[in-house]
Amino acid sequence: TIAGCAQVTGFFATVPAGGRLDTIRLARTRANGHPALAAYLPDQSARCHGYGIMVFTITGDGISTITGFPSPDLFEKFGLPPTCD
Questions:
Q1: Are 28 and 15 a contacting pair, CB within 8 Å?
Q2: pTM for this predicted structure
Q3: CA distances for 5 relative to 17, 50, 59, 66, angstroms
Q4: pLDDT in tens, 56-74
């Protein structure tokens, strides 16, 4: 779990896909009533594979925390395809 603007910015600038956010495909979903995003990362052939789910906690000030679940196995449980074109 990460919290705070600086931590969230630092995380997205370095961790997913080495900071290459333009390569990540996202799909909207929900987790326990919270907004969430499913992230797909490309392999060497440019086919995207499920990477993980990010769940957002929203407060009056906006997003207060992002909890990441880096597990492709979750995609089936969310009714999401394991790969995307």
A1: no
A2: 0.81
A3: 20, 26, 13, 11
A4: 998 888 788 889 899 999 9
